[in-house]
Design a protein that fits this description.
The structure holds two protein chains of two kinds. By secondary structure, chain A is α+β, with helices and mostly antiparallel strands. Chain A contains six helices and seven strands, in the order ααβααββαββαββ. In chain A, the strands form two sheets. A five-stranded mixed β-sheet of chain A has the order 2-4-5-7-6. Chain A has a two-stranded antiparallel sheet with strand order 1-3. In chain A, strand 4 and strand 5 form a beta hairpin. The longest helix of chain A has 46 residues. Chain A is elongated and about 70 Å long. Chain B is an alpha/beta fold. Chain B has one domain: Rossmann fold. In chain B, helix 2 packs parallel to helix 3. Classes of the chains: A alpha+beta, B alpha/beta. At the A-B interface, helix 1 of A face helix 1 of B.
Chain lengths: 225, 123
């Protein structure tokens, strides 16, 4: 299989997994809204039959409904940002923002695997000019690899930083980092090549080094040989 | 009727329990398989409503564990999956009539519960 087809398949698979997970999350939000509004109806019906209506309870339920709408809105916003990450083959971005978005998108999948993933919040912005979609896909492959090879429950901390004339993402904080012969995977290699990145495992951390400015715009899903 | 509800969405499962309670159905809830097994350790339930997809112990696996302890317990599965093929894949394992897609109408859920328990009495 050519690199082009492999990268395209992997991109589609990534897109599919993310949208399936987000649609599941949205469905959960809708189910909670449905139950809460059903409970409001139940309480009103009971009041019509003479049961005292507790206004503070109704206020609490209204607050819960609003909170779920906010949760749904956040999921939809992330979904929208993710969908638009494919618009431009190269874009300037803050690595911390990209990681935060990727982790939000993966939240449910990560939780199902009994992992916790968080992005280091403090530290200066790390700007890179790269293909946002391919880099998100690559970060996702790295997380997936660590979760598959590691043992749950565990947590992974993502630290974006500058390293000389490169940017770097450290995948750290795991109880044990695999160092198997399967690393990097073929998919990781193909995407790394496409965005000019390098992957390594050093001192119990996975490192993803990225050029701060991708020299040649990546040829999405074209042969990178 | 005594029902055990298990779903990793706390607000969903606690609200559903309250709504069943308002209809005279005794419902207890848990957000993990481990908690559900702890609750079921000391108390017998007629029926369990289980989310298919949960961290650690999914609904299908949890069913097996609960059934070891309480062979007469009946089960209804809830799934958030909207895709028809996913639904049928789960339904094949669970028995189609026991699988409902979220959000679920509470009256339909109760109807299914009654049906299952009625069939249990006959069988």
């Amino acid at each position: 299989m050519s690199d082009r087809i492999a990268a395209a398949e992997d991109g589609i698979r990534f897109f599919g997994r993310v949208t399936a997970s987000l649609s599941h999350e949205i469905n959960n939000v809708l189910a909670i809204i449905y139950e809460n509004s059903g409970l409001v109806e139940d309480l009103l019906l009971a009041a019509e039959k003479g049961r005292p209506l507790d206004s503070s309870r109704l206020k609490e339920l209204a607050g819960r409904l609003k909170a779920q709408v906010r949760r749904g809105k956040e999921i939809v916003e992330n979904m929208n940002r993710f969908a638009h990450s494919i618009d431009e083959p190269v874009n300037s971005l803050d690595l911390r923002d990209l990681l935060t978005l990727t982790v939000s998108l993966a939240r449910r999948i990560v939780s199902m695997k009994e992992f916790e993933v968080e992005v280091e919040k403090v530290g200066k912005a790390v700007h890179v000019r790269t293909d946002p979609f391919l880099l998100q896909n690559l970060v996702w492959l790295c997380l997936d690899f660590l979760m598959e090879a590691g043992s749950s429950p565990d947590s992974i901390r993502l630290i974006p930083e500058e390293a000389g004339d490169e940017a770097r993402i450290r995948f750290t904080g795991m109880k044990s980092v695999p160092s198997g012969a399967d690393f990097p995977t073929q998919e990781q290699e193909i995407l790394s090549k496409a965005v000019g990145a390098r992957l390594s495992i050093i001192g119990g951390e996975m490192l993803l080094s990225i050029p701060q400015d991708v020299a040649v715009p990546p040829q999405r899903y074209k042969d990178t040989k | 009727m005594r029902v055990l509800l298990v779903d990793d969405e706390t607000e969903f499962v606690s609200t559903l329990a309250e709504r069943l309670d308002l209809r005279g159905i005794e419902a207890e809830w848990a957000t993990t398989g481990a908690d559900a097994l702890r609750i079921a350790e000391s108390k017998e339930f007629d029926l369990a409503v289980l989310d298919v997809k949960m961290p650690e112990t999914g609904g299908l696996k949890l069913k097996e564990k609960l059934q070891e302890k309480w062979p007469k317990m009946r089960f209804i599965f809830l799934t958030g999956y909207g895709s028809e093929s996913d639904f049928h894949a789960i339904a094949c394992q669970a028995g189609e009539e026991f699988c409902l897609v979220k959000p679920v109408d509470i009256e339909i859920l109760i109807e299914r519960m009654d049906h299952l328990l009625e069939r249990g009495k006959q069988g």
